[in-house]
Amino acid sequence: MRSSAAGMRLIGGRLCLDFVNTIDGRKSDSPRTKSTSINSVVLGDKLGEYSDLVAWSLHSGIVTAAEARRLEQESKRKPAATKAVLGRAIQLREALHRIFKSTMTQRKPQSVDLETLNDELQEARKHERLVASTKGFTWQWIDSEAALDQMLWPIAYSAAEFLSEADLSRLRECGGEECGWLFEDTSRNRSRQWCHMQDCGNLEKVRRFRTRLRSSA
Ligand SMILES: [Zn+2]
């Protein structure tokens, strides 16, 4: 079965934001996601299985098709390690979501969440090497052949880069009633409201139209 993670829109503008968006209907006032916790499958969570994480990583371009196949094979041989990596991925995703949300409301993030991100960064750095090429020097990931957690390295980096270098006042949450997706608003006049017009933008228009109809009846 094709994973829904492989078909989702990548609208965040940053890898780390698209990763946080692997849950639908996350808005805090949405009753559907009140019970969101690590290891519990919630409605709208696209990362129910490790294979979903691999499918999303391929979709996002952080693993190649060959790497994805290798990860699938490797995961079947190491079920316990695979489960641990999925747990780390969800933990990282939820920590990032809380960090981003606190940033949007000018609150200090919880140190435990920053700790989670730093732990993943430290892990990622072990696999980073500076290599010389004809065009100069570049960073490369090494030892990724059989590393079940290889997709977490670029995600952690993307989050660190975003938090330390980007204009965080451009971080937005979709205006859709239940959506909760995050994105970096790179529009010139900072006016982007929706994850995607065809999803939440149109839904909101329909909702407003219905409200108007009701109130005028
Ligand atoms: Zn939306």
Describe the structure.
With 217 residues, the protein is mainly alpha-helical. The chain has helices at residues 15-20, 50-60, 65-77, 79-104, 111-125, 152-165, 197-216, and strands spanning 128-133, 136-141, 171-173, 182-184. The protein has a two-stranded antiparallel sheet with strand order 1-2. Strands 3-4 form a two-stranded antiparallel ribbon. Strand 1 and strand 2 form a beta hairpin. Helix 4 packs across helix 5 (111-125). Mean pLDDT is 90; it is low at 30-42. The structure holds zinc ion. Residues 174, 176, 179, 181, 194-195, 199-200 line the site of zinc ion.
Q: Mean pLDDT, nearest integer?
A: 90
Largest sheet: 2 strands, antiparallel
Q: Which sequence of SSEs, written as H and E, runs from N to C?
A: HHHHHEEHEEH
Global structural class: mainly alpha
The gyration radius over C-alpha positions equals 19 Å
Our measurement of the CA-to-CA distance between the termini, rounded to an integer number of angstroms, reads 46 Å
Q: What ligand molecules are bound, each kind once?
A: zinc ion
Strand order in space, largest sheet: 1-2
Q: Which helices and strands appear, and what pairs or packs with what?
A:
Blueprint: H1 15-20, H2 50-60, H3 65-77, H4 79-104, H5 111-125, E1 128-133, E2 136-141, H6 152-165, E3 171-173, E4 182-184, H7 197-216
Antiparallel strand pairs: 1-2, 3-4
Helix pairs in contact: 2-3, 4-5, 5-6
Index terms:
217 residues; mainly alpha; two-stranded antiparallel ribbon; 7 helices; globular; binds zinc ion
